[in-house]
Amino acid sequence: MPPYFGRIDFRPEREEKELPIYIGLASVLDKEENDFLVYDWRAPIASMYYDFPPGPANYDTVQGNISGEITLKRQYMIRNGELKGMFDTGLTIGDHLLQSVLGGNQANTKMKSIVATIQREQNQIIRNERSKVLVVQGVAGSGKTSAALQRVAYLLYRYRETLTSEQIVLFSPNPLFNSYVATVLPELGEDNMQQMTFYQYLHLQLNDSFQLETPPFEQMEYYLQEKGDNYTARVEAMHYKASLSYKHVIDDYLAQLASNGLVFRNITFRGQIIIPKKAIEQYFYRTESNLSIPERLEKVANWLLHQLKKVEKYEREKDWVLEESELLEKEDYVDVHHTLQEENRFTEDTFDDYEREEALLRKRVVASKLRPLRLKIRKLAFVDPLKTFRKLFQPSFQVKENISLPSHWEEICRLTDNHLKKKFLTWEDAPAYIYFEKSLLGFNAQRTIQHLFIDEAQDYTPFQFALLKKMFPVSRMTLLGDINQAIYAHALENETLLSEKLEEKHERIVLTKSYRSTEPIVSFTKAFMPNGDLIEPSKERGGIFLF
Fold first, then answer.
1. 354-386 pLDDT, tens digit each
2. Which of 44, 49, 37, 45 is nearest to 7 (CA)?
3. Alpha helix locations (H) across 398-482?
């Protein structure tokens, strides 16, 4: 690792002395640990290296903004302890250094850190701290993913007292990508954040209760074949179920369920119904209607647990309990014996020990048999989300007139219900079902996650984004992608997360320069792309091949 890669000479206002500021991957102090020999690239003072050419400059500190003048800006190429080259430069990092750093990685299958070559617009992404949602629209090869990884490193440095890598999640486009970027943060001295694909995340939410359509590839293959049963309805469903209009349908249904229609399951024990679902339904709809559905279900759960205590007392007297007690482990008998000894410690009256022992054994047997049932009740398993969700697609359900529906809605409903009956979720149905189920049972929001990064965000639907906002309610989000690279069905007719019409309040940064190919290649290929005239090729004749 080179000791440094850049230098600026900075003269603060009203001072005559220039400060030489060397910038590297990590800070280096002198022997007395009083002065910095090299500043970490993430330090506030180092931001001037990326944001300003020689001339007036400033940077923010805890004490406020400090202004002055950069009198020198220099870049170094150091390899194995030897100075290979250096040159003075202006605002952008010179193409010679950029090509040297990136071109040397052509045969490497791992992404490398780009801190020595960060451009000004990338630095705006890395150091952004004010935006709840940061949208980065970048053309292919513009360095948006690399900048995002440096952003993670910056945040871990900037908030090192309150933020850890475990509180950051990256949604990557595929498992191979996770391996590709695995070395970047360790190279910068930081632990890797959590990484997963959206498909993996959906699987975690569904457990093994459903068969989930393979990541959108199956959906895309179906779409491109332009044939198959119910093709027109399925394609229309792909578009509609990606939209917030569909979310409005589900939200309206959830509002109706607060008054009637929620489907419950019977509580059974040893093959017998001990609390019928009708009784559970009646109790639920007697609870306070001003509470949310999950809050009301918690009240139902407490009531059911109380009812279970009555059942437990009743079951203890049955013959099956004595039979089961004979199958208890030796440890259970020893434990009961010790309990009796504790009870009789201060008395000599022990003639009823046999009856007390039998009573304790009966109590232990019934409690053990009812334990799984109690656990299910605490998990709200007495609710049937699937059957409740399926009612949304029955002919008897009426959607409000002010909510828009697709032209093939009835056929979409039949198709969806057939899939749900088989516990099969298409790619477009999975987010909607999870959103519905968690709206009933509680979102169990992941409030420990402070930052969420979504790469290839153009592939995410507005509905998927709405689900993620509910699952990560306190997270700041960084969305990275390129509208021109959208390939899935929903993006052809619906707004994507990178659209200017994104409902969420956000800040947008656009990267237009591509460093991946030579100028002739970029100039040729952009003619075939929508808004291709906005793409700027790198001016370096040799081309730069990574980002």
1. 577 677 777 878 888 899 999 999 999 999 999
2. 49
3. 409-421, 430-441, 462-471
Query: How many beta carbons lie within 10 A of that of residue 314, not counting itself?
Result: 11
> 305 near 275, Cβ under 8 Å?
no
Examine the pLDDT at 215 and tell me if it is beyond 90. no
Max alpha carbon distance in the chain (Å)?
102
The bridge status of strand 6-12 relative to strand 19-24 is: antiparallel
Report whether 277 contacts 265 (CB < 8 A): yes
d(CA 19, CA 69): 10
Q: Are 456 and 481 in contact (CB under 8 A)?
A: yes
Q: What is the pLDDT of residue 545?
A: 37
Residue 347 pLDDT exceeds 60: no
CB 214 within 8 A of CB 186: no
Measured distance CA(383)–CA(437) in Å, rounded: 10
pLDDT in tens, 107-166: 455 666 778 888 888 999 999 998 999 999 988 888 899 999 999 999 999 999 999 999
Number of C-beta neighbours around residue 360 at 10 A: 19
- Cβ atoms of 185 and 166 closer than 8 Å: no
CA dist list (Å): 123 to 26, 60, 115, 180: 17, 14, 10, 22
